[in-house]
Amino acid sequence: MNRLGAFEHLLLLALVRLGDGTYGVPIRDELEARTGRLVSPGAIYTALDRLEQRGLVRSQLGEPTPARGGKRKRCYRLTAKGSVALRDAHGAIAHMTQGIKPKLQTP
Amino acid sequence: MSPSPPVLARILLRLLLPPEVREVITGDLEETWRAHPSRLRYWRMTLASVAAWGRHRLRGGGRVASDSRGRRLRAIRATSVPDSGDGLMHQLIQDLGYGLRLMRRAPGFTAAIVLTLAVGIGANAATFSLVDVMALTPLTYQDPERVAFVFGWNLERQQRRFNLPLADALDIGSATRSLAAVAAYQYWSANLSGIDVPERVQLYRVTANTFELLGVDAAQGRALAAADGRPEAADVVVLSHGLWQRRFGGAPSIVGQRITLDGRAHTVVGVMPRRFEFPVFNFKGEAWTPLKFDAGASSVRDGSPSVVAIARLRSGVDYREAQAELDTVMRRLETDYPRSNRGLGARLLEMRRLGEDYGIGSISLVLLLAVAFVLLLACANVANLLLSRAVSREREIGVRAAMGAGRARLVRQLLTESALLAAAGASAGVALAGITLRWIRSSLPELLLVSQPNILDLGVDRRTLAYTAGLAALSALVFGALPAWRTAQLDLLTSLKSGGHGGGAPRQRRARSALMVAEVAVSVVLLVGAGLLVRGVGRLRHVDPGFNPDSVLTMTISLPEYRYPDAAARRAFFTSAVLGIEQIPGVRSAGFVNVLPLSTYDGGTRYVLVGQTVEAGREPSAAYRAVTPNYFTTLQIPVSAGRAFDSRDEASSQPVAIVNRTFARRTFGEADPIGRQLRLGRADSTSPPRTIVGVVGDVLHSELTRSADPEIYVPFAQAPGPTMFLAVRVAGDADRFADAVRAALAKIDAGQPVYHVKSMQALVDAALLPNTTATAIMTVFAGLALVLASVGIYGVTSYAVTQRAREFGVRLALGATPADVLAIVIRRGLTLVGIGTVIGGGLAVGAGQGLAALLPSVRAGDAVPYLAVSAVLLVVGAAACYVPARRAMRLDPVEILKAD
């Protein structure tokens, strides 16, 4: 069973939104734009590292670009196992929120 | 072109993150930087990233180790990977994580180490805090290092005399360039009335610039201002936080109200902050009123009041320069006013160094050294424990080394483990120190409460924490170095082959024996030191002060001028007071004196023998006492020639004086002093000649360790001052008579407060306080040292027994009796203790001489402590060896040989 922490859950959702091959900067921008949380690259990569160890994401090094000062980036994609974990988590949330939607509605 | 990201942050990233992770993270940061070049954001991201990565590694994550074969292997692998430009932080975090796991795996072992260190470090932290407060470090003045006393200095005798005439203080202020300001103050005590019970408060008259010089402003209202010091200014007063709370309930409306001091209304203009303490070496003041004088008339030197002067050095001027300029100014004053200033110099003393001058400095030094030795002992015990564990870890270390960990890497890891232990020990030690200091704070003697500035700040403050942290780091090096070094020396192949049993046993044993000898030696030094101090205090207790303090009650009375304006009124009060008190049942006799021995007050006078001519300014001086007739009887000061004062010596009768033996010997040698005459005051004094009618025994007035000063006594009736100390000899316990004496005084004047009510014995105890305190603390340290040393002896012997179990088994199997085995163990143990005692004894001789040089009551040649300490250590050593030796005796040879 692959349980997800809240932050891990958000990260996997970001990967789905941004598509395969995304990396730290877009992930962080997405998190900041949609949740208002400012997250450091360190926090993102360590969480992704944990997820990779559990086989939920896979990564590879990309090409260096001038915009990054000649540094390479690490690009991530969701694995099949990751999709299952995300679906499970989503299902659990859906079940728990059933019937209380009006109270949770954001104004 | 946008600016480049913060260099320091990039260095941090480079230093703390492993290369591959660093590349990806720095890349992201760089990319973001181009979009929004905010340094603040860059820094936040950097620090958060490093922290996140650190936490990640601590939990066992990290890209290097993605196997699933358990934590231990991963940790071993992690610390075994050769240095390959991996970030330092990365390794440190690995080591910390591994160290924490090790600590958790052996809780008993960890607890023993942490507790030992806690005692050692805690004792140091508490002592430091104590010494720090005693040394006046927490004075809350602005730039306190530039605030100094300007003490008068007797050039002829090269002796300090504290006070200066106000006129000199003012002239110094205007003539020196290196002193930014000079202020002065005068002790005063006044009857505070107009509220419930009248009370005597200790206060100071201060020049109006005093608070400005100290750089402290009032917490409420204002401090004194220049205008308050003019003769025509209204009477104002500034209260201390303590007095405001105690007498006025902390009411904020106090500013602007009037209070009555010695019958005069004073307007309260301000309240000082809670932590403000006045620079004193006697009573802390509770209120301050302006010292008023006419600045234009300051050159009138005759009758210039005697003050304590303080100064602030101009910034950039050092004490030597300022002193040189002060010397020049004083020489000029000497030439300009030879009558008042001949032989008078002045010395600057940084205010915070006043304590050093009182011997507190040397006592502090002794205590700090002693407690450092206690910590050294604790470290030795911890090193001992770590050495034992190093043996059981030889195999693990061997595996690491075999997998490629360099020596440096292994040593670094072991030192990190030591640092963790030291940190845990320091935290526990700080807690221990906090508890101890709270206890000390709640049981402080009254004398310290009223006279020691900032004494209630005693506690673990920032300075103590910094000191403790430094100490912990040093300890980690001390107790971690030996085991780490031993490990680095290991022959890895042997330790792997032998399966971790006794790889380097003989060398190990030597190291341990050396540790044990050192521990015994250090504890001998501490025990002998404590013994010498105890004997020194014992000797002080038996010093004859020249009077009998038993069953004597003392108190002080100050008659305010507005109620007792002249000599006749004062004489009437004190005369009827003696009569009234002597009628109380149980009172044997009562007498008044202007300054009581050991009361911390003193008074002196110049004098000239009639028939001698002395150049002005070169008159000799002596201590001055005005006493009522029964004073000598009350304190049982013996009259060795002539007579005591009696009812014959009235105001109008022939002026007389009594001198003490020291005075008689110094002035007249073998000749008879009775009938000789002297005049009090300067050479041109117009006071009537006094005939010496008696000689009394010497009294140790200010310190029990010093010899007596020459003293001149005059009858109170011929010199009635307003402030007098009362001494009452009673039958039985002096303190029980306090109420009866108060009642007798109230019958004469119900509105007259008394203060400093205490037994004469309490004054003697207070005089011994620095010595008794130091001795008590030293004894605690010596006790700790003895416990630590015996634990050390036990540990080493116990380990030796385990190591030699096989040998003992063989001996027992071959026919040795258990008693033989016992003898072997104890003989070996006691040999080491003996060597330690001899070495320690040698060191203690040196330490004893040092102590004797610092504290006059200590006699270095005193053999008793040396003999007693040797005996104690042999007994304790034998006991500590006996427990493991009994284990050796009961070994079952069959079991041991089978196990092989």
What would you note in describing this structure?
- The complex is a heterodimer of chains A (107) and B (900).
- Chain A is mainly α.
- Helices cover 56% and strands 9% of the residues of chain A.
- Chain A contains 5 helices and 2 strands.
- The model of chain A has no long low-confidence stretch (mean pLDDT 83).
- Chain B has 900 residues and is of the alpha+beta class.
- Helix content of chain B is 52%, strand content 16%.
- Chain B has a 6-stranded mixed β-barrel with strand order 4-5-10-7-9-8. In chain B, strands 15-16-21-18-20-19 form a 6-stranded mixed β-barrel. Chain B has a 4-stranded antiparallel beta sheet with strand order 14-22-13-23.
- Mean pLDDT of chain B is 83; it is low at 64-86 and 499-503.
- Classes of the chains: A mainly alpha (107), B alpha+beta (900).
How many E strands of chain A? 2
Characterize the main sheet of chain A.
2 strands, antiparallel
Radius of gyration of chain A equals: 15 Å
Order of helical and strand elements of chain A: HHHEEHH
Distance between termini of chain A? 35 Å
- Low-pLDDT ranges of chain B: 64-86, 499-503
Summary keywords:
heterodimer, A: 107 residues, mainly alpha, two-stranded antiparallel ribbon, B: 900 residues, alpha+beta, 6-stranded mixed beta barrel
What's the SSE blueprint?
The complex is a heterodimer of chains A (107) and B (900).
Chain A: H1 6-18, H2 24-35, H3 41-53, E1 57-61, E2 74-78, H4 80-97, H5 101-104
Antiparallel strand pairs in A: 1-2
Helix pairs in contact in A: 1-2
Chain B: H1 7-16, H2 19-35, H3 39-58, H4 71-80, H5 88-105, H6 107-134, E1 147-154, E2 159-162, E3 164-165, H7 166-175, E4 179-193, E5 199-206, H8 210-214, E6 220-221, E7 236-239, H9 241-248, E8 258-261, E9 264-271, E10 287-290, E11 306-313, H10 319-336, H11 338-341, E12 344-350, H12 354-357, H13 360-392, H14 394-402, H15 407-442, H16 446-451, H17 462-488, H18 492-497, H19 505-541, E13 552-558, H20 567-582, E14 587-593, E15 604-609, E16 621-627, H21 631-635, E17 639-642, E18 656-660, H22 661-668, E19 677-680, E20 690-696, E21 711-715, E22 723-730, H23 738-748, E23 754-759, H24 760-803, H25 805-813, H26 818-854, H27 863-889, H28 893-899
Parallel strand pairs in B: 5-10, 7-9, 16-21, 18-20
Antiparallel strand pairs in B: 1-2, 1-11, 1-12, 3-11, 4-5, 4-8, 4-11, 6-9, 7-10, 8-9, 13-22, 13-23, 14-22, 15-16, 15-19, 17-20, 18-21, 19-20
